[in-house]
Amino acid sequence: MSVTMDGTKQQRRGNTRQRIQDVALELFAEQGYEKTSLREIAERLDVTKAALYYHFKTKEEILVSVFEDLTRPIEDLIEWGKGQPHTLETKQEIVRRYHKALADSEPLFRFMQENQATVRELRIGDTFKDRMRGLRNIIIDPDAALTDQIRCISALFTLHAGMFVMQDVEGDPQQKREAVLEVAVDLVTQAHRGTHPA
C-alpha cells in the first residue's frame, strides 16, 4: 500500500477491504456463494450495505478480489521462476514456495474446491488454470521424458491433494504438511535425475 498524505485513512480502508474479503469468504464457505447476499456480508461485518458498496458493488467483485490478492504470490513465483535456470535447486524452491502460497491462501482453495461450478462461471477457474500452466512450464524441462514431466506435474497436484485429502488422515497437521512437501520435492528430484543423470 502506498503512503499518502492521508496514510491513516488509507490503512484503515485497506483493513476494511481485507475484513470484507475474509467475512465474505467465510460466509461463502458456510452457506455457498449463491445463497450469500451482500446484506448478510454487511450484517456479519456490522456495517451498512452502503459502507460495503463503497468497497465492492457485487459478490463477484469481492470473490475476484480475494482470488487476485491471495494468488498474487503464485503469479510472483511464476515470474521469479521464468528467470531461473532449470536446476534441481530451482525446481525444489518452486515446490517449497508454491506449498507456502497454497497454505497462506487455504480458505480460498477450499472454497474453490467446494464451489467448482461458481469458480467456472466467474472465470476464476480459467485464471487459475493459466497460473497452473505457468507453473508447469517453469518446473518441467522441455526435453524431459514424459514420465519425468508427469512427476513434476504430480508434485504440484500432490500439494493440492495435501490441502484437501490429508484432512481426513489421522495425525498432526504440521507433520502432514511437511510429509506432503517432502513427497512433492521427492517427485521433482526424481524427475530431474531422470532428465540429468549423474
UniProtKB/TrEMBL annotation:
InterPro entries recorded: DNA-bd_HTH_TetR-type_CS, Homeodomain-like_sf, HTH-type_Tx_Regulator, HTH_TetR
UniProt xrefs under Pfam families: TetR_N
Regions recorded as binding DNA: 37-56
SUPFAM superfamilies found in the cross-reference section: Homeodomain-like (SSF46689)
Domain HTH tetR-type positions: 14-74
Keyword annotations from UniProtKB, A to Z: DNA-binding
PANTHER family given in the database record: ACREF/ENVCD OPERON REPRESSOR-RELATED, ACREF_ENVCD OPERON REPRESSOR-RELATED
The protein's name in its UniProt record: TetR/AcrR family transcriptional regulator
Protein species of origin: Streptomyces hyaluromycini
